[in-house]
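Section 3.1: Structural characterization of target chains.
Under the original work plan, the team committed to producing a structural model for every single-chain target entering the pipeline before any wet-lab resources were allocated. The record below documents one such target. The sequence was received from the expression subgroup and is listed exactly as submitted; it comprises 97 residues.
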Amino acid sequence: MSAAQPYTGTLTVRANGDANSYALLDDHGQWLLAVLHNGQALEAKQLATLNRLAACWNACQGIPTAQLELAASWGDIIKAAVVSVPPHTGDATCTTR
């Protein structure tokens, strides 16, 4: 029996129209995950948080889950690597619909 494979495409964020309720959409614009955000945060902060989550997911394309789990213990190494990466100047891979 083989292990189930996770979704590996990109994510975008869409507000569902209900307070604090969002969908993370797959490459085809189809609903993949639903997220209920803490209502104490204003909508702009909620969207910023979800866009960050989607951007992190999208930045991890091609990295196996086991390596990501291991990398969680490498906090200082990852911080050093991020500091050395120049700012992104092209189109963002995370969008809000």
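Residues 12-83 form one domain.
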